Amino acid sequence: MRLFLILSVLFFSACINNNEDSTIITDPNDTSEMALLMRDMFERLEVIKYKIENNESLSEEQLSFAIIHSQEATDSSFIKEGLVPMSEGYSRIINQFNNYPSKENYKSIVNSCINCHISMCPGPLERIDNLIID
Ligand code: HEC
Distance from the CA of 76 to the CA of which of 10, 42, 70, 85 falls in 20 to 30 A? Predict the structure, then answer.
């Protein structure tokens, strides 16, 4: 497990740029489909977080994202054992939110981002921390 983490960090540059947003945006050619999806998810969730913090209604919120494991990643060896079940679990949690958009279900989404990242791609964890609410 530890070895896999180290290898991930070595191979997947997208997993190392934690909060240096500027470097992320400057080179679009290096950006995989999967990384673009992740940024899109991040931005959508930031909006929902803002609404929660401002006591705005979530009842109209519906999330629709591409299936993570169907996206091309920065390195194809990413699609390893572990990614698919976590990606499927993530989709279920998104559906749960769509059926009942609530603060609790928002928190479940963020936990599932974090769970996958801890084992697959620890670099962006610091950025993902910005989505946590109490
Ligand atoms: C099933 C595993 C999984 C889940 C769930 C997941 N991620 Fe990711 N994430 C990855 C992988 C793998 C990459 C690296 C993608 C690449 O480089 O092609 C990544 C990359 C990222 C990046 C860096 C993108 C870039 O600009 O290079 C961010 C930010 C990110 N994820 C945020 C999130 C957020 C926010 C969520 C929850 C809404 C989330 N992730 C859920 C696996 C996951």
Answer: 42
Kindly list the domain boundaries of the chain, sorted by start residue: 2-131
Pick the residue whose CA is nearest to atom 3 on ligand 1.
116
End-to-end Cα separation, the chain, in angstroms = 30
- How confident is the model over 106-128, as a mean pLDDT? 94
* Tokens (6 digits) for 93: 């949690």
- For residue 3, report the distance from its CA to the centre of ligand 1, in Å: 20
Alpha-carbon gap, residue 95 to 91, rounded angstroms = 6
pLDDT in tens, 31-41: 899 999 999 99
Our mutation pick for probing the ligand 1 site, out of 121, 126, 127, counting the most ligand atoms within 8 A of Cβ, is 121
Max CA pair span of the chain: 44
